[in-house]
Structures are given as C-alpha cells and as structure tokens.
Design goal:
- It is built from 5 helices and 5 strands.
- The chain is an alpha/beta fold and 158 residues long.
- The protein has one domain (1-158): Glutaredoxin, CATH 3.40.30.10.
- It has a 5-stranded mixed β-sheet with strand order 1-3-2-4-5, sandwiched between helices.
- A hairpin with a 5-residue loop joins strand 4 and strand 5.
- It is globular, with a radius of gyration of 14 Å.
- The termini are far apart.
C-alpha cells in the first residue's frame, strides 16, 4: 500500500503515507486530476499534535470502506497546517463562513477548481458523523442540468 505522501517531509503527512486513501499533497497534480476527471476534491487538514486528527486517521482514513469511497468519488488531498499555514488559513476562513464553526481536523469538499463547497471541522467515522453516502451523485454542490448532487449525511448509530 502507499500513496503520494511517501516523499513528504512533514511527520503528519508521513503518518498518512500508508493509508489506503490515495492521498495527494496539496498542489497542481491534485488539481489537474480533479479537473481532468471532473471529480470533487476532499481536502483534509490537520497537524501532528492534534488528538482528533489522530482519531479521524485511525477511524476513517485507515478504514478500507472509507478509502474506497474517497478514492472512487473524490481526489483526496491531505494538508499539514503547520507546513502550509497559508492553505490552512484560507480554507479555515471558508469553513467558518460555510458552517459557522472551525477546528481540526478540517474536512472540506472542493470543486475541481479548489473552490470550497461544504465541510465540517471533524468527521470521525465511528464516534460521530459518517462520510457522505448516496446512491446517486456524491457531488456536494449543484451541477448545471444534473440536480443538486448533494450527498445525504447519515448520523451513525452505536
């Protein structure tokens, strides 16, 4: 296993290098793929000393089912907020604007051109909210001529 984070310098990103999620570092390669495949971007921002970042890593990003969903329907992008404070600050402003709250780990759904659409400050799989589940499109924003495309967020029980 492994993904594009194997060459990272950040200890936080290296901790995700063996995840089943096919992570891309924040950059042009991820944006080109999203645009070429017309896929939304799943942006995950965290840092090494963040407790909930490690919980989400263990419960969501090491889970094969979550990885299959993210890899099939999104271009997953992982950011270390300590390595890229510019990216963290820009998308945190967007998250707070969209949801009225912020925090880490930060999860955002972006258009293929990296514009924020929706998000949440944290989404651990087993301890709270599940990832989007839908029998239709997983696009988290309206697409012309295709309906809303919004995923249904399901509250996990137990």
């Amino acid at each position: 296993m492994g993904n594009r984070l194997k060459a990272a310098r950040s200890p936080y990103l290296l901790a995700h290098a063996e995840d089943p999620v096919d992570w891309y570092p924040f950059g042009e390669e991820a944006f080109r793929k999203a645009q070429a495949e017309d896929k939304p971007i799943f942006l995950s921002v965290g840092y090494a000393s963040c407790h909930w970042c490690h919980v989400m890593h263990r419960e969501s990003f090491q889970d094969e089912e979550v990885a299959r969903l993210l890899n099939a329907h999104f271009v997953p992008v992982k950011v270390d907020r300590e390595e890229r404070p510019d990216v963290d600050a820009a998308y945190m402003r967007a998250l707070v604007s969209l949801t009225g709250q912020g925090g880490w780990p930060m999860s955002l759904f972006l258009t293929p051109r990296a514009s924020p659409s929706s998000g949440a400050p944290t989404s651990p799989r087993r301890t709270g909210w599940a990832f989007p589940a839908s029998s239709g499109s997983l696009w988290p924003w309206p697409r012309p001529g295709r309906g809303s495309g919004r995923p249904s967020w399901k509250r996990r029980s137990g």
